[in-house]
Amino acid sequence: MTALTVSQVTKSFGATTALAGVDLQVPDGTVTAVLGPSGCGKTTLLRLVAGFGDPDGGTIDFGGERVFGPGRSLPAQRRRVGYVPQEGALFPHADVTANIGFGLPRADRRAGRRAAELLDLVGLDASLAHRFPHQLSGGQQQRVALARALAPRPSLVLLDEPFSSLDAALRLSTARAVVEALRINRTTALLVTHDQNEALSLADQAAVMSAGRIVQAGPPQEIYRAPASPVVAAFVGAAVFVPAVVTGRTASCDLGELAVRTGSVEGAARLLVRPEQIRVDGAADGGGAAAEEDARDGGQAGVAALVTAVSYFGHDATVQLRLDGSGRTVTARVPGNRLPEPGARVRVAVDGPVTAFTAA
């Protein structure tokens, strides 16, 4: 069942087009991440779904009910939507229990049972129930904000970059706890983010926005491995683009003869290679011996390259490589325990098939 259906929704602010015909379906009980660069229309879409404004055109349906369309605009308070803004927006004069209970019937607020249930659901200790927002960490505040959004049992929860103000370590743990709480509660959620890692690791479905449109939606793995366009490829993860000539399922390029995923591209093409696909061999001995051994074993010897720079991140590193044949520079991502030195001569090969786009 589809919990949310957005069809051809448009919105302009004066001469600026924010949404240019957005289509999106959010399956019931799933977390869908809408990601894209700043200014692409993500937050505008979220606010229109919430009912904080009306589109200029199109329709919005919750399940089988139309909440916006020709001649109809259901007010925000009747849409049964929970909303979690970027900063949580807790009431500073109210404690945790009162913040969670806001919007509940008076009897439920007095009993406090729902607040206690939700504190447990979002992974917070009951001892925090009577603390005020300024006595909580940023991550705790965001979990309380989610609990408040879940308290009235909404049909849909909307999250507007709720983790953007947190530091990296706290952001990851808070995001995982929030999404886990949503799944345990079987709540449908729409998460707006510009963080690719967040969308890919947390969501059941990702929808990439560009210039006011959804340009691709689907499982995160599909979007990463088989992006619909170079725009999607470049935004969702690091990308290396290499010109090539495609014949059937094989591409000839500066990185050698590469296998191409199923597609209709033939002739001049632009290949997408992910940095982790680029294998760097022979770093320990300058490349020659490793390459000769690979060739004797019938493996892919790859092409010769010079290591020009290495950026170390602990668990892995990026390696800048200048290919001998063309002088083209490409970036590889390698394990942190297998680092070549700048100036080393290495062999470079590509693991797995690549995606081909028609040459621009």
From TrEMBL:
What is the scientific name of the source organism?
A: Parafrankia colletiae
Provide the alphabetized UniProt keywords. Answer: ATP-binding, Cell inner membrane, Cell membrane, Ion transport, Iron, Iron transport, Membrane, Nucleotide-binding, Translocase, Transport
**Pfam families assigned:** ABC_tran, TOBE_2
List each copy of the ABC transporter domain by range: 4-236
The protein's Enzyme Commission number: 7.6.2.9
The name on file for this protein is ABC-type quaternary amine transporter
Gene Ontology molecular function, alphabetical: ABC-type ferric iron transporter activity; ABC-type quaternary ammonium compound transporting activity; ATP binding; ATP hydrolysis activity
Q: Which domain of life is it from?
A: Bacteria
Q: Which InterPro entries match?
A: AAA+_ATPase, ABC_SmlMolc_Importer, ABC_transporter-like_ATP-bd, ABC_transporter-like_CS, ABC_transpr_FbpC, Mo/tungstate-bd_C_term_dom, P-loop_NTPase, Transp-assoc_OB_typ2
The Gene Ontology CC terms held by the record are:
ATP-binding cassette (ABC) transporter complex
